[in-house]
Design a protein that fits this description.
This protein has about 160 residues and is an alpha+beta fold. About 30% of the residues lie in helices and about 40% in strands. The protein has a single domain, classed as Pnp Oxidase, Chain A, CATH 2.30.110. The chain is globular, with a radius of gyration of 17 Å.
């Protein structure tokens, strides 16, 4: 027997994961055909994934050229069997970023008492854009739901 994949997350669990997780990995296509992957902060809102990034960043330039994007959101618990996540395959749109949008994204990881001030300081450093990811399809997994897999780590 070949082990292929643990059970999926339910739709509610996927939505919870996307709302509660601060970091994701975003993958875009470089001009030479290789994949560019980097860690980002994000906000999940109205079925979209919102990411603020410097306008001159490789991911922004890649996605302006080719909007094909993959976003990985995952969580590892205390044990190796406490591993769950979702991969979002989608299309990205890159556009201007407003201060209000940037604050909303940064609220997911910055302290509430300083988010406005710190966001303004980031805006003063460089020009930023908003990457808006519309999911086309998703895949997910939850190793904790797989009793046989989890048993390997209890022995």
């Amino acid at each position: 027997m070949a082990y292929t994949q643990p059970p999926n997350l339910s739709e509610e669990e996927i939505q919870s994961l996307l709302k509660e997780t601060e970091l994701a990995r975003i993958c875009s296509l470089n001009q030479d055909g290789t994949i560019h992957a980097t860690t980002v902060n994000f906000k999940h809102e109205a079925e979209r994934i919102l990411i603020a990034t410097p306008k001159a960043s490789r991911k922004a330039r890649n996605l302006q050229r080719d909007g094909t994007v993959t976003v990985l959101v995952d969580v590892v618990g205390e044990k190796a069997s406490d591993f769950r996540g979702a991969v979002v395959y989608g299309k990205a749109d890159v556009k201007e970023l407003t201060l209000a949008q940037f604050i909303k994204i940064n609220e997911t990881w910055m302290s509430a008492d300083r988010v406005e001030e710190r966001t303004q300081r980031l805006l003063d450093l460089t020009d930023w854009v908003l990457i808006s990811v519309d999911p086309v399809r998703m895949a997910s997994w939850d190793f904790a739901k797989d009793e046989e897999f989890a048993a390997v780590f209890r022995d």
